[in-house]
């Protein structure tokens, strides 16, 4: 919910005389929560997240036939997408690649990532391994790359696992 909506809610709630009572002796946080809840109850409005699209497109000035220029642009795209995914608290679960050839045909391929990640080297290696064996009949004119986001799997890495090393202390004196 944006600040503007909360401000409109506050004006709406404050325009009713009975609405001022719950927070007269309370804190500002109680007041804000009350206004937000009251607005949802009155208008039935629900907040929603805008879905960001993680994609990049590049039209080559000159059609390319070798792999090096394609990999250079592809690496930059993956770096940009991975950064945006990280800043949005997402990871890539699938990468979609489309190459438009000079005659107008398209080569498309979707790559499913086994463990969703934002690691640039892993994502680039998936695409590089496929592209080094790809042979197209015509030069490449356009590159399109899209990452489908998902929430990354969270792991505790054994922080709360109870693998305790127990040591038995003998009460008998040792024969020294």
Explain what this protein looks like in three dimensions:
The chain has 176 residues and is an alpha+beta fold. The protein has 2 domains: 3-43, no CATH class; 54-150, Dna Ligase, domain 1, CATH 3.30.1490. Helix content is 35%, strand content 26%. A 4-stranded antiparallel beta sheet has the order 1-4-2-3, covered by helices on one side. Strand 2 and strand 3 (106-117) form a beta hairpin. It is flat. The model has no long low-confidence stretch (mean pLDDT 78).
CA-to-CA gap between the ends? Answer: 74 Å
Helix percentage range: 25-40%
Q: In terms of structural class, how would the helical and strand content be classed?
A: alpha+beta
Strand order of the largest sheet: 1-4-2-3
Quick one: how many beta strands?
4
> So how many helices?
4
**CATH T-level topology of the largest domain:** Dna Ligase, domain 1
- What fraction strand? 25-35%
CATH architectural label of the largest domain? 2-Layer Sandwich
Give the CATH H-level superfamily of the largest domain: DNA polymerase, Y-family, little finger domain
How much is the radius of gyration in Å? 28 Å
Strand/helix succession: HHEHEEHE
| CATH classification class of the largest domain | Alpha Beta
Biggest sheet layout: 4 strands, antiparallel
Gist?
With 176 residues, the protein is α+β, with helices and mostly antiparallel strands.
Chain-wise SSE layout:
Layout: H1 3-14, H2 28-43, E1 54-64, H3 67-87, E2 91-101, E3 106-117, H4 120-131, E4 140-150
Antiparallel strand pairs: 1-4, 2-3, 2-4
Labels describing this entry:
Dna Ligase, domain 1; about 35% helix; four-stranded antiparallel β-sheet; 4 helices; single chain; alpha+beta; 4 strands
């Amino acid at each position: 919910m944006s600040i503007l909506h909360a401000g409109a809610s506050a004006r709406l709630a404050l325009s009713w005389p009975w609405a001022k009572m719950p927070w007269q002796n309370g804190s500002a946080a109680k007041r804000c929560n009350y206004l937000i809840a009251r607005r949802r109850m009155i208008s039935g409005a629900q907040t929603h997240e805008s879905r960001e699209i993680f994609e990049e497109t590049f039209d080559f000035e000159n059609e390319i036939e070798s792999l090096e220029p394609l990999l250079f642009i592809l690496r930059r795209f993956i770096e940009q997408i991975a950064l945006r995914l990280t800043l949005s608290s997402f990871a890539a679960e699938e990468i979609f690649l489309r190459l438009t050839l000079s005659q107008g045909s398209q080569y498309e391929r979707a790559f499913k990532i086994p463990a969703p990640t934002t690691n640039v080297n892993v994502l680039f290696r998936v695409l590089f391994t496929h592209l080094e064996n790809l042979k197209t009949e015509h030069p490449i004119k356009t590159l399109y790359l899209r990452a489908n986001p998902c929430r990354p799997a969270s792991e505790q890495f054994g922080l709360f696992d109870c693998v305790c090393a127990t040591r038995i202390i003998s009460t008998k004196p040792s024969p020294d």
